[in-house]
Structure formats: structure tokens, C-alpha cells
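Can't attach files on this board, so I'm pasting raw text. These are the components:
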Amino acid sequence: MKHTISVLVENEFGVLPRVAGLFSGRGFNIDSLSVAPTLDPTISRMTIVTRGDNRILEQISKQLNKLIDVIKVIDFTEQNFVEREMVLVKVTADAEYRAEVLRIADIFRANVVDVTARSYSIEATGTPAKLDALIELLRPLGIKELVRSGPIVLGRGPKAWKSSE
Amino acid sequence: MKKTGSQILLECLRLEGVETVFGYPGGTVINIYDDLMDSPINHILNRHEQAAVHAADAYARVTGKVGVAFATSGPGATNTVTGLATAYMDSIPMVVITGQVPTPLIGNDAFQEADMIGITRPITKHNYLVRDVKDLARIIKQAFYIARSGRPGPVLVDLPKDVQMSSTTFEYPETVELRGYKPTVSANPRQLDKAVKLILAARKPVVYVGGGATLSDMSDELMEFVETIQAPVTTTLMGMASFPNTHPLSMGMLGMHGTFYANMAVTDSDLLIALGARFDDRVTGKIATFAPDAKIIHVDVDPTSIKKNVRVDVPLVGMLQDVLPRLTAGLQKHGDELREVIAATAGWRQQIVTWREEHPISYKQTKNTIKPQYVIEKLRELTDDDAIIATEVGQHQMWTAQFFDFIQPRTFVTSGGLGTMGYGLPAALGAQAAFPKRQVIDISGDGSFQMNSQELATLVQYRLPVKIVILNNNFLGMVRQWQQLFFDRRYSQTCMELPVDFVKLAEAYGATGLRATRPDEVEQVIRQGLETPGPVIMEFKVAREENVLPMVPAGAGLNEMVLAS
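---
Top answer:
C-alpha cells for the assembled complex are below.
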């Protein structure tokens, strides 16, 4: 089963390999990982999508908590959350398909961020499933290159995590 | 007043109460070694960095303090790796300081550069690269705190040469602030109540004690707990000596080479009370048939240990110092029920006595060949109760666990988790450095001994009177045993073809060498060895193809023991 977890860590040199090394060393999967500083610049927030049964997830969460540089681990599986991912995709845009590419982009509320005579680069945000759908529609038109950010998530409702907790 | 990084380091160590450091100098720690000449800290010059780290590890195991070792960058630092991994697997508090090339050269493949933070990340509790001398005092303070608190473990501090040489105002922080590190000390009271209820309901309880009991110095409290409920006790290799093996409720070790009665008791139990143990595969055997009818109470300070390998009914995350006295007090409140429980479990205790009579730990004595088990029995007879026994890894280690009745805590020093051959001699050295007046003995095999035999030089130089018992069968005995039992006696590369003259080897280093080849010489050699001042090698030519039994084959259940060859 897929799980999305947020890991709040010290924004310090060498923390990312500690987290990544824990996953590889213990045979846990990482489907995606994204990381950037939070409002408090001394803390970074990682969003990790991983897979495993409940026992494995419990171990992942405990093992992460055991790392000295990990401040907080939030598993979003049991709660409501907002999930967003971004994709940048470079699509072949020859004369006969230029309009079709734009139509698809429009349906998905995607933006064209770079245009040449033979290509469009499109930016789209949404749930991973929405981006999958967009990519499937663009694929027959000729995708030249694609990059996904991996999802980031935030819990729903007024409750929030504060660094002073 | 301003101090240099190397002075700050040594001052921090002094303030942490460090008296003895083990190490080996080199280019990137030369400043530290220069300042060491003006410091009150003792330094022991080992002959290999691996040995220095094992010595510091054993120093920690016998004293309960944080062990400290120094090594230079590059090869010196990479030689600490086995020592760190050994300490990490056994949760030993240790701080290892490695030199590093100057910060501007890091990443340039400089001479004697190795990425120690990368290399040691998975085998340390935490590690630090000090990039600014201003961070040094705080980092050392944190390193010691992390090493000794919660589930203890080794911490590596990588200290570039330019940081050692630059100066700053020295101030040692009084407190540690680590927002990501807050070990759980006190167990949840509701879980504690549940545990008390389970214990009062059990009719076939077993107490299963791991290294946590040793690390937390809870032997007295353990004894009180056990006597309160009158439950039989089995220990892991790491838990051994925290509960006296001579006690009527002691069943000795469980697991792969555990006693028949301990393994049968665990398999048949209805309640397993795990105290500071981690259900290692050498302990559980096949998980599916491990204690199939038992409820499990698991006390451990490390939440990752709980439910990692086995299902747990009552998890108690906390320090044994907190949990054990509360558990005992909780039980003692139920005086009447407790008396009923003790009466109702009498049959269970009798069952264990019966199992023990059926298959005691034993061996067949022979007239002309020395049995290794006999040497260990004799050694127990002739040594003090507070003698510290270190071992290497292999058959001799298991025979020590089976035949040496440990009585006092922190008297058994062995590499349990990692199983590091070559650990015993430097470990005995570290233990003797901590307690110069006590008997310290390294029980060894001819294979393991040769993995760090250079430490004979260190023993002689520092007049550390370690006695080394070599059970010499000219085999890598444990692997040979597996080859005999599971590979049709195809002894691939386990015969140590060239016999070493260990007596001459001892003499070459300026130590004493003694040898016994017949059973009737054993006692005399041990007596003479123990009485001879200074380091002594006692070599015993033992039965070559003796096996460690009972044995649970890898992957089998605890009740599927091989009892005889």
C-alpha cells in the first residue's frame, strides 16, 4: 500500500543521505522524495511516498524518528490531506497537433511555459493521478522530455504543525 | 581565553570525565597528540586502529562509561569501521574521534582522505563533521550525550586538521539541546498495568533478558523482579552475567546454542517477558514456531526494536531503570494473587527441572584429548568471581556462554550482534586498562586470536596482565562445524594448515607462553598462567572436531535442536 509521509528535519549538511540511506539500508522503497526548507529556515520538510504493509510503515516511521536530525514524522495515510505534484513536459508540437496540445493543456488547466516552432513546454499541477491522465493524453502526440516533482502534501483543516511543538 | 581546536577537544574530554583514550597517531591528528602531552588524559597506543576501538568499546562495557578512541584520517579512520559496527550492534556508548584532511581539501581526493561521515552513517548512532571550531565544544557535548543516553551507541566525530589548529574562545555548554532527540524514559502507565495483569494471569512465564539489563545496570532490580514472580530466566549472549547463572531460576542462554531447557521453556511458555532484548534471529530461530502460545511483553528503550521481528501484546517503551522497579512494585501490590501465581507456577518450574535433567549442558570427557569445554570449566573454578572474561567469536565463545557460570554483571565482554572475530584480545586489553587489579582473560580460538594478535605488544608495553586462553583446534571451528553438519564434511578453507607456535609468539613479544596437550596438564597450566605476572598465553591443544551443542540449525524452530553429533 502507498503511504505519503512528511519528515521534518534539521536543515543541515548531510541530513538527506541519512534519510535516503535509512530507506536503502533497510530495504524500504522510495517512490518519490521532495525536499525544501520550511517557513523556519532551520527546518526542511521532506515528503516521501513509500510502499509497504502496516508493519513496514510502522518500522519506517520509528526508524525515521530514531534519526537524531529528524524532528517530526507525519504519516498522512490515516488523515485527510491535500496532495499536489507538478509536471513539466516538453511535447512535440508540429503544425498538425499544435492546437490539440493546447486543447489538452487547457482541459487540465496547464500552462504553456515555453514555445518553439516545434515544441511546447507545459506546466501542470494536480494530484499524481491527474498528472498521469494528462501524460497519457499527451503521449501519442510525442513527449520529448518530462520531469515530475513528486507530490507534496498538507493536512486538511485548521490544525498545523509548528516547529515549537 | 582562546584555545585551539585540539586543546578544546581534550578539555571537553576531561570535562566529560574521560581518563583513558585508546588510539593511534597520524598526520591529521598530530596536533591532538601534541596537546595530549600536556593533558591529564592517559593514552594507550594500540597497534591497530581497529584494536583501539575494540579496547574503547570494552572499556565502556566493563565500566559503564563512554569509551573513547582516536584515529587519523583515511586508512586510520577506515580501520575504525569494524569497531564502530561492533559497538553499534551491541549498543555500546563510545565516542570515536577521527582526523580529517583540512576543510579546503575535503572532496579533493586528498592524501589520506576518506568520507568517514558517509562510510560510518549506518554503523553509528550519529556522526558529525566539524566544519567550524566554534561548533566543536557543542558537538563534543552532544556526542557524549547521544552516546550514553537512550539506547546507547557509538558516535563518530570527524575533525579536520585546520579546525584542530584554529582558535576560539572556549566555553563548554552545560546543557544539550536536540529537538529531534528525546529518548523515552518512562513507560506508559496503562501499558504497565496491562503487563502486571498478564503476569498475574500467566501459568508458564519466562523472563527473557537481553543486553539492556547489562547496559542499564539493572541486575539487582532484575533479581527482585524475578524473585517476586518466581519465573524462570533465560538470557541472550548480551544479557548473560546480568543474572547469575548459578541461580536456581536461571536456564542459561536461549537460541541457536542455547540450553535445551531454555529453548523448550520459551517454546512452551504462555508469557514471555522480554527485558532489553531485541528478538534477534539467533535467538528466535524460525519466527513462525517461536513461542507460539505466548503473550509477549516487550520492554525496550528503542521503539524500533518493538514489533520489528515478533508480534508484541504489551509494548513498554522506556528505560529498564524506570520499568523494572515499577513493574515489581505493581506486582507486589497484589500480594494474595501473587502468592497464588507462585503456587500455580510450581509445576512449570518443575517441568524445567525435568527438561534440564533430561538434557543438561554437557560434554564427553576423554582421557587423552583435551576437551575445550573442560578448559572453560576449569577456568571458572580457578578464577575470581569478578574476573572479566572477553571472548573472540566462534565455538570458544559459545562454549564460554554455556560452561562459564557468570555471576557478576559486566564480567562478560563479547561481540554479540556483529560477531567480530579479533574482538577479544583488544577487548580484554581495554577491560584491563579500566581495572588493572582484576583478573582479565581472553578466551580465544586459534583463528580469531590471529586477527588482532599484534595487541600482545600493547599488553606488554603497558604491563597489562591479560591472560589469553587459546583453544587451539587448528580449525575455524564454527564454520567447520557447519560444514560437517550441513555440507557433508567438505572442509573448504577452514583448516588452519600451518600450526603457529603460540608459546614462541608470546615470547617474541616479551610475554609468557604456556602449553597443555593432555587433559591432566590443564589445571596446572591454568594455575601457572594465572599466577604468572604480566600477559600470558595459555595454549590448549583441544579435540579438533568437537561441536557446540545443542544447536538449532539456521531457519529451524527453537524446539528442533540437534542434541548430539
